[in-house]
Amino acid sequence: MKKLNKIFLCISLIACLLLSGCSSVHEAEIKLGIKNNDFEYIKDNKVQKIVIQSTRDEGFRFTLEDKNAIEDLYDILSSAKSVKNKSSLKSDYIFEIYQGNKIHKFNYIAGLDKRDQGNLYGDNKVFAVSKRIDNSIIQNFWTIKEPKNFNDVYYNSIISAIDDYIKSQKKQGKSIGINLNDDVEVAKYILSIDMESFKSDLKSKLKNVEIISKDKQSYDIVATIKTEGYKLTLYKGIVTFWDKSNKSEKKYYIYDKYENAHWNIKVTDSKPSNF
């Protein structure tokens, strides 16, 4: 099927060049809707730099000034599909494209690859952009690597801590709100699309538990996550439960190690000696 699509694409490009007066392959691609022309100012060398900023971690910010890197980003953006509707997910990054005295500002949702749903929006337009932008641009600037299988380790450890707390402290029926907003140590690794998967896991595994999206006071118990340290093969964190009914606090300690090609997730209510 993919081979047939490529053949059809080549035939369409040739037909456009021969019949419609297109002066170049690039122009033909725009006429056929394969590419857009909304980012031509980048191609025309009118952009001095592009700043990419995490929406969750103010310290995670980097600047593209290398000509080749800017051209790579142009290739991805110019191949984006213009769509009507943007995703309802919170954006993960803000792109600021500096064109002289003008700054083009776009919000970007990482990891979303749905051709009918916009994950890049700004300049009064919405685009569906390939996930290539995550691997080709953003991850190249991560100087500190997240733990292996970060999403599985991080979110499953939280679920394990909450499950143990509910059972051991007899908190069945209580509403629990999970506060991830204050976990600044790993904020740069938290993406909206991963949080959606986490929400689904919570719904299927635990009752009356959700990520805080409103006032903390609306929950009986608040679970606050704080990462204490991490590297490729180790993750340490503390989950602090605050029960407002009796003003009690309970801490759970996460000490996960990657050994023998898999993660050992360990969650206890007593602080490990090697924590």
UniProtKB/TrEMBL annotation:
Signal peptide segment: 1-27
Signal is among the record's keywords: yes
InterPro entries, sorted: YhfM-like_dom
Coiled-coil boundaries: none
Record key words, sorted: Signal
Protein name (Swiss-Prot/TrEMBL): YhfM-like domain-containing protein
Ranges where the YhfM-like domain occurs: 43-146
UniProt source species: Clostridium fermenticellae
